[in-house]
Amino acid sequence: MARKHNPxxxxxxxxDKAAKLLDLTENDYITIKYPERSLHVSxxxxxxxGDVRVFEGFRVQHSSSRGPCKGGIRYHPDVDEDEVxxxxxxxxMKCAVVNIPxxxxxxxxxxxxxxxxxxxxxxxxxxxxxxxxxxxxxERDIPAPDVNTTPEIMGWIMDTYSMQKGYxxxxxxxxxxxxxxxxxxxxxxxxxxxxxxxRLLMEKLGRTLEGATVSxxxxxxxxxxxxxxxxxxxxxxxxxxDISGGFYNPDGLPxxxxxxxxxxxKLLNQYPNQGFTLITNDQLxxxxxxxxxxxxxxxxxxxxxxxxxxAKYIVEAANGPITPTADEILDKNGVIVVxxxxxNAGGVVVSYFEWVQNLQSFRWEEDYVNDMLEHxxxxxxxxxxxxxHEKNSSLRMGAYMSALQRVVxxxxxxxxxx
Length: 418
Ligand code: NAD
Description:
14 helices, binds nicotinamide-adenine-dinucleotide
């Protein structure tokens, strides 16, 4: 069934707007509208009960203009080619906005991993990697975690690739467990980047995070760390949610305990309620707070609920949580949005650091990783802020313009083969 909001069409719409602000001609950026490669694979898996089931998987390489392709792998029932294409294109823009030497890619399998046993999940992962093996490699395309994929799964990916090569190749995938070449600080990096983005926005506006009220949608890898670090930075997290629903408490929620709870891969509705108000995801998005952090899936804020958003600021931890139409409504209503390709870039920045460590067979201290992440985020945020103000546009346009300039420059310098 066709999606109501095709995320790849959303990407192209935003790209066109940014290109117009930069006075680019269609010739300058037409290639960015097309992914370089797309592979659709069938994955037969022997289930524990002896049945054979076939899953569909995708790997899309959007661009290799600025370096090897880079992007996560998602396990979710809604995965389809257009979603993976959009996620891959956003990776190209994200790597360019933070100026790391990568292009963009993404992968996905159409599956709800909670319905599989651990053995089935491992067989599915290994079969997927075997099928996309010709495309990936440390110089080619480097996967990482995304929704429903974990460091353990990244370990299986490293092993599957290494077994084919006959020697250990840690640089083929990032987000690995520390013991097999993962980087200190990678697990927290996306959430940390979200917190840094929120802090920088507040600083630009002459405010601080101290006492700012926050609601967070999605308490997975990204949302739970963002909530924890915002809380530790002095913000008051009053609402959180996940797929099972959410909690609201005007005096603030016990974020340290909630973080421990979800870290054990438990849902929020399994948390013993201490008198908090139960809320739905729709209610969470419309809470009267200073800062809203959508950290779940795309298209959560659309034309229908955008007029009801009461947050003053939104920091997009998820990829594509706001549709272009909703973005315009929010902009008109004075809601300031720090866009996904900047706000959630912390993950790929530390993935890049992990890959660099793997290629050098060297290990950085966690403080050094975090300092380098901070430095990278501050530089990118300032560039986006300045460009947005120079062109009198939104921060999303600032981020897209910053990224587009870099991708277009690389494409021009390389030229078109043959
Ligand atoms: P995750 O699987 O760890 O967590 C997803 C969370 O969202 C879970 O708490 C889940 O219950 C919740 N959720 C799912 N569907 C929902 C719905 N319809 N309503 C409310 N909650 C829902 O995934 P993650 O890695 O934290 O990724 C979250 C978002 O961040 C995605 O958009 C992903 O692409 C983006 N992102 C992730 C990374 C990373 O390093 N993992 C990096 C950049 C961007």
